Amino acid sequence: MNLVRPRPIWRAQCHWKSQELWRFKGLRGIHKQRERVEDRRWPGWEVVVGIEVHAQIKSRKKLFSGEYDSGVTTAFVGDTKKAPNTAVSCFDAALPGTLPSLNPKCVELAVRTALALNAHVQRRSAFDRKHYFYPDLPSGYQITQRYAPLARGGYLKLSRGDVTVRITQLQLEQDTAKSTFHAGRRVSLIDLNRAGSGLMEIVSEPDMRSPEEAGDYVRTLQTLLRAVGSSDGSMELGSLRCDINVSVNRHGQAPGTRCEIKNLNSIKFMMTAITSEVFHHIELLESGRTVPQETRGFDEDKAETFKLRSKEDSPDYRYMPDPNLPPLLLSQEYIERVRSSMPELPSETRVRLLSMGLSERDADVLMTVDAGREVGFDGEIGKGACLSHRMTHDLLGQLAARKETFSDNPVSVKHMGELIDMVQSGKVTGTSGKTLLRHMISHRSLDSPSKLAKELGLIALSRDDSSLVKEWCLEAIEELPQQAEAVRKGNLPVLNKLVGKVMKLGKGRANAETVRTLLLALLRQER
Ligand SMILES: Nc1ncnc2c1ncn2[C@@H]1O[C@H](COP(=O)(O)OP(=O)(O)OP(=O)(O)O)[C@@H](O)[C@H]1O
Ligand SMILES: [Mg+2]
Ligand SMILES: [Mg+2]
To answer: Are residues 145 and 217 in the same domain?
Structure first.
């Protein structure tokens, strides 16, 4: 990577004009004409959605100031969330005389993302200033790359269906500070910790045709960002924010006027907001009015969008090239070096998981586990597929209950495989399998499951041990007389209570089906 001396403003302005040219190069083949699909929610209408995603870059330091980032990536930096206004350099606070210095890590992570999105990384990109006045922007402008972005012209294949969304561009830009309105005191509090953190703005073409496709796009993108390690991609925590552009048109007609919905903090709300916006547009158009170009917000309680400002009120950003930052020049060797260090991408992981014999649904579940990359496999799944999936769900559930991630998982692929085989062959019951799994996780045990099963007395009972099972059944009937009476009177669902009791007495070693039959036989005998 090279930084060269700044060029005069008018030279950099030349790049503004080249913006449209790329659109007609190369991408035509990828984007097939979409088939007309009637949506029963809005017959006769076509919905068009384009999304601008702002993803916080997972770098230890901010984009230009060298200050440690304290945003939602704090967990990554390794300390707890910083107190407001404690991670602020003079540059972040826009003190006069301070100058930007580009953080190469942010560039590398953005290039990784661009390559993962099949985009063309521009050997030469440049930084612009976007001016507006708001308390969360101390300098009065945001440094961005609107006119000569880092990358252009990529695409993302959605995980469901045969949908490809084209990526217009990926640009680097600064995050703003965080402002919180205090209704009681009627003041806005500003926390500059986030000011100047690195963002990637990923702009899509208007290629989505339903709220569901938009949701799928954001989900697929989140998985991709996490897989390449460039962003946490959490909408809830604010490390991924979406501006959703929505328009509607009658089938066969040109796209309508778009409205942009801002400040959405979950995929679910985003999909509801799109649906609400679509109905709003249709209502306007059907009553003979036109859709005004607006920026809108989303009211979570009413599940409705509302007007924030109209296009006429939108500020004139007075873009200009940043005179303090020279163009960013990347050599082909640098780009190739980054390309050679790319990890397995989610689309490749998915194909690998499916080729192991997993169903689409199970592959999707595993894909949510650190993008599926850390999921190991010790051989053929074959007939045990159903069981291995259930045990995998148990594993994920138990880790989640302990607030641990899949990377904290202490159970090796070999031991997990052995455990599944033991349950499959009946050496331990399903209940004991769960107990063993819990023990292996909580004790961080490195012993094999078969050794542990012996030590903990969890080996399933053989048929010869039926007298022991009978003893537990009799004990259960004695300890739960009311439930036993209910079953005698024909209330069969209550039998589960007794079965549960027997399982507890036998530490899960008895076979649940055998216990049921025996309990019923005993209760009937008594009569
Ligand atoms: N008719 C349309 N319907 C829905 N979305 C559209 C339509 N036309 C364009 N879009 C989408 O609108 C978005 C435009 O984003 P872009 O960043 O280029 O401009 P902007 O929203 O005007 O600027 P800013 O970055 O300041 O918000 C793109 O994601 C594009 O796909
Ligand atoms: Mg934009
Ligand atoms: Mg926009």
So the answer is: yes
Residues in Cβ contact with 210 at an 8 Å cutoff, skipping those fewer than 6 apart = 39, 47, 49
Q: Closest Cα to atom 25, ligand 1: which residue?
A: 52
Place of tokens 């050794």: 451
Atom of ligand 1 nearest to the CA of 205: 31
Q: What is the pTM of this model?
A: 0.74
Residue finishing a domain among 306, 323, 340: 340
Same domain, 174 and 310: yes
ipTM of the complex: 0.98
Whole-number Å distance, alpha carbon 81 to ligand 2 midpoint, is: 29
Same domain, 366 and 431: yes
The residue type at 331: S
Counting from 1 in the atom list of ligand 1, the atom nearest the Cα of 257 is 1
**Pocket around ligand 1: residues whose beta carbon is below 6 Å from it?**
48-52, 203-206, 243, 245-247, 255, 258, 260
Are 261 and 404 members of one domain? no
- Cβ(305)–Cβ(257) under 8 Å? no
Verify that 315 and 437 share a domain, yes or no: no
Q: How many domains are contained in the chain?
A: 3
| Pair 444, 408: CB distance under 8 Å | no
Sign of CA pseudo-dihedral 9, 154, 272, 252:
positive
CA 163 to chain centre: 19
Structure tokens at 320: 């200009």
pLDDT average per 10 residues of sequence, the chain (527 residues): 42 38 44 70 94 95 84 41 88 94 96 97 97 93 96 92 93 94 89 95 96 95 92 91 96 92 92 96 94 93 91 85 96 96 86 76 70 58 58 78 78 82 82 87 86 84 74 90 89 89 84 86 77
> What ligand 1 atom has the least distance to the C-alpha of 260?
21
- Which residue owns the Cα nearest ligand 1 atom 26? 317
Mutate to test the pocket of ligand 1, among 51, 258, 263, 296 (most ligand atoms within 8 A of CB): 258
What range defines the domain where residue 477 resides? Answer: 463-526
Instruction: Tell whether 158 and 139 lie within a shared domain.
Output: yes
Domain boundary among 455, 482, 516: 455
- Cα 3 from Cα 107, distance rounded (Å): 12
